[in-house]
Each structure stands twice: as C-alpha cells, then as structure tokens.
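pinned: reference chain
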Amino acid sequence: MTPEERSAKIDAQIAQNAADIRRLIVDSHTLLRRTERLAKSKKNLQRNPPASQKEVSKDVKRLRADQAASRKKLRKLVERVDRFLSKRRKNRTKE
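pinned: its structure tokens
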C-alpha cells in the first residue's frame, strides 16, 4: 500500500467517524428533548391527574366505606345468630 493510498484510507475513516459522531450528537439531542418532554408530562400528570382518575379514586373510597359498613352489619348479624343459637341450645338442654 502506497503512502497516498494509506493516507486516503485514513482520511476516509476519519470522515466516516466524523459523520458517525454527528449522528450520535443529533440522536443524543433528540433523546434529551424527548426525555425532558416526558419529565414535564409526568409532572403535569402528577399535579393534575385526569378527571377519570379522580373519579376512580372517589369510587374506590366510596366502595371501601361501603365495604366497612357491610362488615359491621355482617358482624352484627353473626352476633345475633350466635345469640339466637346459644339461647336455643340452652332452651333445649332445659327441657
């Protein structure tokens, strides 16, 4: 390989490397802008959740309250049935 061919090959490789570096710089800037946009969107969603999410949260709270009330009623019912059955057993043993 002659020195001129060698020099041309090195120059071609340098040009290719420079083009690759420019593409990487453009890609990194694009990635940075997209990341910043995503971060802003995330902050906006955290500050102002969509109405549907608020409605779902309200529904979940309402359901939990209803579930707690149902548990209380069920406990009372179980206690009444227990009392009824224990009285019934006592009456049967007396006879």
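why pinned: The longest helix spans residues 3-47. The chain has two domains: 1-48, 50-95.
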